[in-house]
Amino acid sequence: MNDKREFSWIVIFIWAGLFSIGLIAIYSATQGPVSQFLPSFIQDNFYRQTLWIALSIVALVSIQFISPRIFQEGAYFFYAISILLMIITIFFGVEVSGSKSWLRIGPINFQTGEITKLTTILAAASYLTGRRNITSENLKTAFVTVMIFAVPVVLLLLQNEAGVAIVYIGILPVVLFWSGLPYGISLLMVAPALIGYFTVLNWKWGILAAIIITIVIFFLQRRTWLTVTSLVFGALVIIGTEVALHHVLQPHQRARIEAFTNPQLDPLGSGWNVLQAKTAIGSGGLQGKGFMEGTQTQLRFLPEQWTDFIFCVVGEEFGFIGSSIVLLLYIFLFLKLLNMASNQKHPFAQLVIVSVTFVYFVHFLINIGSATAVLPIIGIPLPFISYGGTAFLTNTIMLAICLNLDFNKRTFSIYR
Amino acid sequence: MSNRQNEKSQTAIRVLQGIVILGFLVMFGRIVQLQIIDYETYSPLSMQNSLRMERVKPARGLIYDRKGTIMVENQPIYTITITPAKFNSHKVSTLSTLLQIDEELVIQRIREAQNYSWHRTSRLFTEVSFEVFSAIQENLWQLPGIGHTIESKRHYPTDVNASHLFGYLREASLEELEASDYIRLGDYIGKSGVERIYESYLRGERGTEYIRVNAYGQALGLYNDGALDIPPVKGSDLITTLDADIQALAEKLMLNKQGGLVAIDPHTGGIIAMVSAPQYDLSKLSGRIDANYWRELNTNPSRPLFNRAISARQPPGSTFKPFMGIIGLQMGLITPQTQVYNPGFYFRGRRYGDLADPGNYNLDRAIAKSSNTYFFWMMDRIASRGQLNTWSSLIQDFGMGPLNYIDLPFERSGIIPDSTYMNRTFGERRWGIGDLMSLGVGQGMVSVSPLQMAVATASLANGGYRVQPHIVSAVKEPNGEISYTNPVFEKIEWIQPDYLRLINQAMMNALMEGGSRYYGYIPGIPIAGKTGTAQNPHGENHGWFIAYAPADNPQIAIAVLMENSGFGSVSATPIASLIIEKYLTGEIKREHIYNHVMNFRPQIPLARSVENE
């Protein structure tokens, strides 16, 4: 058997640190001095989250006793089950604030889209293991991988959960890149997001981004067709974004974009959340206003403070010190996980750990980016900190699998 | 696994580590920027967010009568407001349930508010009950865009209505807003009566309150336990010279009549009671104004908003005679012994009628029996000698004609003609003695208000002092400090005690022997009085009565004008007499006179003709 000392306890500590901060923030956001104005089901969030954490601890421990082979061999089965659950959700799910992403099983509500993150990663990893033959000439494997991701994305869009869908789209280039997709093409995959982002800020920056990306692609691949594609692609993205901004988008959608680029335009309307989020974090200062003392939090200037805007609670009440600790915990976690991946010999394990890392990273980037107005507001939770049982459990299971794979890294390769 | 592949993995790991670290650095840089560099920007923003400065309206000052009875006080009214842009239309049914108001009406009111403004707060329902108000308050969290305010309205706890004295409050007009530093949009200010004159005392000082609020605008309590708050200063109270009982009686007696009544304390000029009939219902103009009622008031042909007591212009008729007598003595036209024969008329170019019995009249008898001849004769001599201006100025010394500067708005001067006036009216040298004759008996161009007659009568009662009529005797500040108003009280230099003694006797005789004795005489109380009847070419004559009592030690002077009511002795005298009786004895023993007054109806041509149309 493996030596217990090889178990990555540091990851457990980071995990515990994050969920503890989460519990404190959820408590403050839902049990504060004026929480009587909150609906009662939200006031119960703290206790529910505690239960989910307890359940997750059980799951985490249990998973350590499972043979890592199960994850690879059962990957397609899990994938199929989770896709099936998502389809069921579309027809029989519970609708919560506009999105039909919850499946009620007994007293518990499951967010099936969350579980599918894990199964999609496993399925893609399983498929790609041994097929690291993606080159710029042979993109068939890449195409199949895209399809594995496309199914849950489409289902999520049907559930009206565009935010979660973005996470899948965010991990896909990483998965493909890891599996051998040439750097240039990988960059081309993320190029639309980057160019689009800069175009929203200012179309001149968009052009600059497109040119730089094209030049980088040229130096990476030195293929004329790819470079031309990149340039045309970049131009299309800029034009498309501009046209969409000014002609295609509905006023409320445009308002959301404008709220991001210029919240002062409509401070009481669409710019409200952006402005209030920045105000909450900014007014925290160095030390913060203190636990349950944050006026922005306690006076409910922001919606969804226990999920999408939970970073504002931390930022306001615990200040720069508190938010730095959160950021540091995350960067340690990410680097530790990437380190685990690089120590793995088994491509399946590597791919799973890398993918899990980037699931966390994309959540981290979008959530904190939204809260600090670096990105337009996209409502997705902060891993291990935000309230949300299914998400917490899924994230923990993913972490547990990584730990399991890491713990068994010597024995696992034998199974191959 | 080949080395090449492993090497490739390591490069990929480096790239991914780079991306992760880059992401971390961007976010870290951002929080440094927000929390360290821009802290100074966001900290005050969050303060503003959670604090709301509210103006706290002070309680308006109360109005007391001379005995300390509260006649005007404040009553809270609960108002539900709406900001349509923030309101969620799915909440209409919740709102309607809580308001206990039909859903359709709620929707209609919301639509009206939307038409006014989507972003400004409008009143949705005013004067809701306290229970409804509490229910809304408890459920504000689920009713975004709905708010509430507590305002106050005037409340009149006694039987006293005194619409023309107290006056009503209304929202300040744009001009008033611009003219004042204090008044804010939506403030209610006194528009008439003492509410208007004493507005700056009654309104008090606005306070400010800093209230912690949440993102829904729900108040959570005082900021810093109210350390920064400036409490409002309650408005000063007005202590009036009114007597609530007498005022209520006067209003009752003037019910269904048209005219004016002024009862005055002859030693101070303090108004004991004042009525302009018809009155209007002040309580209907308090708080939410009934638009239909307001329209009716403004279109009613009997003009209820018009204060007849201080603004009417009517010839005083025979009530003018006592003053003519004093002036005649002062001008040396007559002595107490002067006798004028009355053949039933006075002739000067034409016959001037006299209804008194033919015979010889001295001053006493001329006043007591109200003979016209004596005064026509006197006026003839004044006019013939070209002493019109002397006469006019002496009459005006009594307060007839000029403004008396009572503390009420819209007081109007009367008309006591002098040569300037005559020239202006008829043209230079186009008027003669014939145009002046009727002035001697208080007819023709001379016109006065009940207030002016009351002031003049007070001078007869108090030994020849000119009083400044006033409603408010003192202003009591919230800290208890009382400042007294200083109404003018000065001797009319030329009036001799002898003159007054004569007139006093004559006016007492008028009540014992004259036409007013039946309704005017009060057993045990000596009254000096004089009736008058003003000729009215447009309809029934106007009745007048002036009096003071007790004649030997006057406590009250009174003037009553009854429009379109015929002889003053029948219409005006009983009212004045009942008020004197009540004021001096505290009760009314003469039931039959009270009943007579209550059943008396004037014949108002204008109202009738309007009805016929």
If you had to describe this structure to a student in words, what would you say it looks like?
The complex is a heterodimer of chains A (416) and B (613). Chain A is mainly α and 416 residues long. Chain A contains 18 helices and three strands. Chain A has helices at 9-31, 40-43, 45-63, 69-73, 75-92, 112-128, 140-158, 162-178, 183-201, 203-221, 224-248, 251-261, 272-284, 295-298, 310-343, 347-371, 389-407, 409-415, and strands at 94-96, 99-105, 108-111. A three-stranded antiparallel beta sheet of chain A has the order 1-2-3. In chain A, helix 5 packs parallel to helix 7 and helix 8 runs antiparallel to helix 9. Chain A starts with 8 loop residues before the first helix and ends with a helix. Chain B has two domains: 53-240, Penicillin-binding protein 2a (Domain 2) (Alpha-Beta Complex), CATH 3.90.1310; 250-297 and 307-577 and 586-612, DD-peptidase/beta-lactamase superfamily (Beta-lactamase), CATH 3.40.710. In chain B, helix 13 (321-331) runs antiparallel to helix 20 (497-513). Chain B is elongated, with a radius of gyration of 35 Å. The termini of chain B are far apart. Chains A and B meet through helix 8, helix 13, helix 14, helix 15 and helix 16 of A and helix 1 and helix 2 of B.
Q: Could you list some keywords that capture this structure?
A:
heterodimer; A: 416 residues; mainly alpha; 3-stranded antiparallel beta sheet; 3% strand; B: alpha+beta; Penicillin-binding protein 2a (Domain 2); Beta-lactamase; 2 domains; 7-stranded mixed beta sheet; 5-stranded antiparallel beta sheet; elongated
What is the number of beta strands of chain A?
3
What percentage of residues of chain B falls in helices of 4 or more residues?
A: 25-40%
Relative helix content of chain A: over 70%
List the total number of helices of chain A: 18
Strand content of chain B: 15-25%
Q: Catalogue the unreliable spans of chain B.
A: 606-613
Number of strands of chain B: 23
SS-based structural class of chain A? mainly alpha
What is the second-level CATH architecture of the largest domain in chain B?
3-Layer(aba) Sandwich
What is the molecular shape of chain B? elongated
